[in-house]
Amino acid sequence: MTESCFTLLAKDGKARRGRVSTAHGHVNTPAFMPVGTAGTVKAMLPESVAATGAEILLGNTYHLMLRPGAERVAALGGLHKFMNWPKPILTDSGGFQVMSLSELRKITEQGVEFRSHLDGRKHMLSPETSTQIQDQLDSDITMCFDECTPFPATPDQAAQSMRLSMRWAVRSRDAFRRRPGYLQFGIMQGGIYEHLRQESARALVDIGFEGYAIGGLAIGEGQIEMFRILDFAPDFLPEDRPRYLMGVGRPADIVGAVSRGIDMFDCVMPTRAGRTGAAFTRFGELNIRNARHATDPRPIDPNCTCPACTSYSRGYIHHLNKAKEIVGAMLLTWHNLHYYQELMQGLRRAIEAGTFAEFVMDFEAGQARSDLPPL
Amino acid sequence: MTESCFTLLAKDGKARRGRVSTAHGHVNTPAFMPVGTAGTVKAMLPESVAATGAEILLGNTYHLMLRPGAERVAALGGLHKFMNWPKPILTDSGGFQVMSLSELRKITEQGVEFRSHLDGRKHMLSPETSTQIQDQLDSDITMCFDECTPFPATPDQAAQSMRLSMRWAVRSRDAFRRRPGYLQFGIMQGGIYEHLRQESARALVDIGFEGYAIGGLAIGEGQIEMFRILDFAPDFLPEDRPRYLMGVGRPADIVGAVSRGIDMFDCVMPTRAGRTGAAFTRFGELNIRNARHATDPRPIDPNCTCPACTSYSRGYIHHLNKAKEIVGAMLLTWHNLHYYQELMQGLRRAIEAGTFAEFVMDFEAGQARSDLPPL
Which of residues 61-80 of A touch B (CB under 8 A)? Predict the structure, then answer.
C-alpha cells in the first residue's frame, strides 16, 4: 500500500501536468529541481530560489552525510530548517556520488564501503544506511539506494547491475519509515535495454513506491539514445505515480523528456553554468565571457524578467565574470534558474491548454536562433 | 568658490551629525561607505547593500581604469548605471592602489607611471588623468590624486611627500570639471606630525574643496597613534565641510574617530571579513569557522535583524564556510554590512539626541563581552 501523493491534472499526448503532495507542500509538474548539494543552492539565497518559481530542491545525501553529517543536520532541526528552505526537498540516495566522488570504494551485496573524498575516513552506504540518513535529513522524497549502471554496459552487465539495484530496492523500502506526506521513489535501471527496463519497472511496481525514477541516463549515451529509451521506458511505469528523470538536463533534454511522459527533473546545469559564464535563454546558450559581450549595453535577454536581465547589461556581467566577482556568479545563476523555471511553467501551461505541440515548435525555433542579432 | 554641499545638523562634543548633498542624493553622516572595488560590492547585490542602510559606495579608480576601463564604463552609462547603484558614489584617486598593487611604478613630479598587475601594460596616473577618469566614471565625489605617505616616515620624508601631494592637489582641482552636485575632496597628508598636518590643511583650504579627507592613517601606526593624530588633525579643517577618514576601519576605530569629529569612512573590513568567516557584532568579533559554532543552533546575534541572523544558525553558517560555499560569503558579508550601518545609525541618533557619551560607553561594554555566553 502506498499513499496517494500524485494528482494527474491534464495530459496532452504523452505530456503530463500533475501535482505531487508532500509533507512540506505541493509541487506542480512538470517540475525542475535546482540542486542544493551541500545544503545550499550555490550562489543563491533560498528566497531567491523560491522567487524563480522553484517549488522543490534536491539535496545530496553523499555530501551531507560527510559534511556536516546527517546527525548534525537533524540536531539543527532537519535540512529544511538548516538551509532555510521550508518547501519540499528530495534527496538522492548517495549511490551515484559514492561511485563518482569517493575513494577506495568496495561494492558488495551489502552496499558500498568507501573513503570520504574530504578526509579519507571510512563510511558505509547501503539501502538501510542511505534510507536512514535521508530520514535524518527529513527529506520529503527519499530515493532508493541503487547502483547507476555505467554506460556502456553489455546486456549481461546491465542485467546484473539492475538486479542488484532491485534487491536493494526491496531493502530500501523495508528501511523506509512511512509517515504521511513522506514519499519514497524506486529507481528503474536496465541501461539501454528495453527488456531490462521492463523487468526493472515490474520489480519496482511489485514492491510499490509513491513514485518512480528513471536512472542510468544522461551519463554519456547522448540525447538521441536517451530519447529512444524514453520512448518506451516511462510506459512501463504506472500512470498514477510521478516519474522522475534523474540528472537531466539541458532545456532541450527536458522538453523532449516531458513530451515522452516525464514529470520531474534535476540537474546542476543551470547553477554550474551560472558560475562558469554560461547563460541559458529562449534563443539558446550564450557564453558571457565571449568578447562580443564586453561592450553590449543590452541585457542577456530583453524579454527576461529576472534581476540579471532587468538591471544589468551584458557588458557588466561580462566584466564581473572576467574579474571573477561573486556577484557575476550570483546574477547568472539567478538568470539560469529563472529561465529553467519559466520553461517549466510554459510546459505546464501548454499541457493544460492542449497546446503542447505548438509550445515545442516555438521552443525549438527559439533555440535555433542562437542569440539576439548583433548590435 | 565651492558649492555648499554639507549641512551640519547637530553636534555632541566634537561628534558631528550632518548631511552631504550630491548629484545622486543625500548622505547622512557619520556615514560608512562599503567598498565596491571592481564595480561590485563583493558577494552583495546592490539592492541588498541599500537594504543595510548604505547611502554611498566607494569605487576604486585603479581597478576600474584597468578593467573594464573608464571609457567602457562611460559608454555603458557611467558607474551608477553599470553597477545598478543609483545612489551616490565616491571614487578614490587610484593613488593608494597604484603604490600597493601595481608593478614597476615610477613616481615623478608629473605623476606615477606603472604597469598593470593584470596584464603588465603601461599606464600613467597623474592629477589630471585620475581626475578625468573619475569624471568618466561619473563619480559624485572625486578625490584628489595624492601620495599616501608611508609609515614610518621621518619629518623630512613626510614633508616632502605631503608637499608633492599639495602641488598635485592644485592640479587635481584645476582638472576637476565643476557641475552641480559633483564634489571634490582634498586629502590632508603629513604623517604623524602635527605641524605638517596643519600645513597640509592650510594648503588645501587655500585651494578650496567641497570636502576634506584625512589620508595616510590606518597604514600601520596603530589605533593609539591614529587617535592621537585625530585629536588635532580634524580641527585644522573647516567646520562647514565634510571630513572623511580614508580606509578606516574596525568598529572601535570608527566610534573613536566620530568622537574626534570625522564624518565619513570607508573600509574593506566588513566585506573582506565576510568572505573569510569573521563576523562583527555588538559583542565583538567572532570567527564562524571556530569549532564551537558547528553545533550552535543560535544565530550570530539574536538581536540582529539581518537575513543571516533572522534565518540561519551559527551551525549552518559554520558549515557553509567550511564547505567554501558562496552563500556563506553572501550571508556573512550581509551581516557585517548590516552591523556597520546599524552602528552608523546609532552614532547619528546619539549625536542628535545629545547622548553620544552614553552610546560610546554602551558600545565599549558590548565589545568587551566578546560573544554570547556558551550554550
Answer: 67-68, 72, 75-77
Separation CA A280–CA A266 (nearest Å): 16
Residue where the block lists cell 509517515: A179
Q: To the nearest whole angstrom, how far is the Cα of B343 from the nearest Cα of chain A?
A: 25
A135 is catalytic: no
HEC letters along B334-368: HHHHHHHHHHHHHHHHHHHHCCHHHHHHHHHHHHH
Are A237 and A14 in contact, with CB atoms under 8 Å apart?
Answer: no
Q: What is the ipTM of this complex?
A: 0.97
Question: Distance between CA atoms of B274 and B267, rounded to whole angstroms?
Answer: 13
- Of the partner residues B41, B294, B327, the one whose CB lies closest to the CB of residue A68: B294
Which residue of B35, B49, B84 is the best one to mutate when testing the A interface, meaning the one whose CB has the most A CBs within 10 A? Answer: B84
Residue among B40, B44, B313 minimizing CB distance to A320: B40
Kindly list the residues from chain A whose CB atom is less than 8 angstroms away from the CB atom of residue B41: 327
Segment A367-370 long-range contacts (CB within 8 Å, at least 24 positions apart)? A367/A251, A367/A252, A367/A282, A367/A283, A367/A284, A368/A284, A369/A283, A369/A284, A370/A283, A370/A284, A370/A286
| Domains, chain B | 6-267 (3.20.20.105), 273-357 (no CATH)
Respond yes or no: is residue A92 known to be catalytic: yes
Alpha carbon A4 to chain centroid, angstroms:
22
Residue of B213, B258, B248 lying closest to B93 (CA atoms): B213
Pick the residue from chain B with its C-alpha nearest to A311. Answer: B84
> What average pLDDT values come out for chain B (375 residues) when binned by 10 residues?
79 98 98 98 98 98 97 98 98 93 89 92 96 98 96 97 98 97 98 98 98 97 98 98 98 98 98 98 97 98 98 98 98 98 98 98 95 89
- A313: which chain B residues are within 8 Å (Cβ-Cβ)? 76-77, 82
pTM of the full structure? 0.97
